[in-house]
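for the writeup, i need someone to sanity check this before i put it in the appendix. the sequnce is what the collaborator sent (i think, or maybe the updated version? ugh). structure was predicted straight from it, no edits. if anything looks off just tell me and ill rerun, i have time this weekend
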Amino acid sequence: MSGDVDGRLRVALVGAGAMGGEWLRMLAASSIAVPVAVVDLDIESARRTCGSAGLDVATGRSLTEVEDAGTEAVINVTVPQAHRIVNEQAMRAGLPVLCEKPLAPTVSEALRQVALANVTGQLLMVSQSRRYFGPLATFATVAREVGPVNTILADFFHEDHEPGFREQMEHPLLVDMSVHHFDMLRYVTDDLPVSVRCDAWNPPWSWFAGKASAVATFELASGARFVYSGSRATPGAETSWNAEWRMHGLGGVATWDGEKSVTLRSERVVAEPMSAGESIEGSLAEFVSCVRSGRTPQNEVRDNVLTLAMIEGATVSSSRQGERVVIRELLDEALIRALRDETREDVAAELQSWPDAVHGLSTTPWGSEPAIASGGAS
């Protein structure tokens, strides 16, 4: 892509809410990308968000209304229910997309977006911004020193008051917060989820309408277990937003408090900041680099589907009173639903060509082929 005169990637931001404002303020100071348009169904919101960031750029209610802005890529910061619509508009217009998490409300809808990426040949990357944190990278490095892993534990407990849609969600913990922690597990271990048993519930004092607490145990392809416990409605002794971690293996124990304290066999390890920036700045840096080079990012759409599958597997298990849910079976059931729901002929034909979901997630125009663990005996 040509870029503008100073080499920055010209991006359109879609979604001018609170998170959109955070992205826009970061973009306004970026040395690698420049916002050239802001899109929102509420045009006045788009203009206010631009004004709050000190920007005078094109605004519109759709990408087609700002097509003269010279956009080279799209950052999708809309609500999850709108992600697929915006991603499709962008990719069919020949634009790569960086999409906020979660990619989709369901795995079946995520698989439809994988097929769409295949059809258009465009990059679709999911912004799992908490991967871009120096101490997490340090924990991932020292975790390798414990050798073969037996158990990984992560605890997340918060008194989280966020009036609005989050307090009305069916699974405000698993869907809105655990998505980060499950993705961190995949980053730290490079292991693959095989199955999950989960129990989710709502404490009687909770201000959430849905299930704000959960305990989940994942079987991983290595044979290790990932045990996760958390709540968004537990006052006192709060953990980090990144959760608190322990990894037990043949060579000892690695711990991370979710902030700056990383230890290996009780010895403190100095965590270094990530050179490409942290949080959404790090996500943007990887996206721009991959758009320029054609390299596959770590959260390319096919890889990110596994994080979604962990979430959906946990919610399904909870609804079945803790029944073991096999991830590979869940993926194949999601593919059946994707084929049933897809109305666009080219995307439906792409889905139809997959022998199973594993095949669909192992073929990418952007290079790498993520593997998926077998479900084993149920």
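The first strand starts at residue 9 and ends at 14. The chain has eleven helices and 15 strands.
thx in advance!!
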